[in-house]
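Long-time lurker. I teach an intro course on protein structure, and each term I like to show students one example going from raw sequence to a predicted 3D structure in token notation. This year I'd like something fresh instead of my usual example. Would anyone be willing to generate the tokens for the chain below so I can use it in lecture? Attribution to the forum is fine with me.
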Amino acid sequence: MKNILEAPFMVETVRTLTNLYRLGWDERNGGNLSVLLDEEEVSQYLDTSCVIRDIPMTFDASAIVGKIFLVTGTGKYFKNVQYDPAHNLGIIKIGEDGRTAKLLWGYTDGGRPTSELPAHLLSHITRLAIDPSHRVVMHTHPTNTIAMTLIHDLSERAITRTLWQMQTESIVVFPEGVAVLPWMACGTNEIGEATAEKLKKERICLWAAHGIYGVGKDLDEAFGLIETVEKAAQLYMLSVNAGIKNGITDEQLKELAGVFGLDYRKEYLD
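-- Reply from a regular --
Happy to contribute to a lecture. Here you go:
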């Protein structure tokens, strides 16, 4: 078997988690990540039939039985992943009952997947039904995005329009807009189900006073979505108290959408 720490999916995941911590988006043990892996690729590094232990789940993941995921551990600090991936990450396979995560690698201290596993796996189920190329669910705590949810109208139309108006890239990167959930207790099936429902239409879901969920076909896409929203939120927070005089107008956004051929949420513009 090849060294799993040298697997491309492992190297890129560790780099991404390290970068998220560096940016200040994942304080302490905040944030979590899951990546859907290709079993054929994983089998070059692990015996996928060798189960270390079973980890019960409190929700039904029958739609993804047999799928393999690389998942951050509960209570783990992103800053430590680069030094000891096997302690802070785990590779799980969804058991035939749909309610058991079979540990194939990692969580060497006896740990478990993130407490947000319901939100991750339910979101994977939702996105795979829409986009078979989907692979990543990323949850992080970008400072300006959270601050924006504290002072801005939380209607999806209002917050999307503001984010679009802050910079040219916003409507290009997330033309479908952003979804928003009001504050909910984290780590529950309820917030997982609500997030998955939101991700049927958007690839970004803001959790008020908490953070953001982004999905994508790879780590770059999910990360890029989140950093674009965060940049727009930062521009808003830097300018709102001074009064925004020159934001991008609705007509200009429509022009931009035409130039790039975007299928955007037309009802979000006047």
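Some talking points for your students: DSSP finds eleven helices and nine strands in the chain. The longest strand covers residues 100-106.
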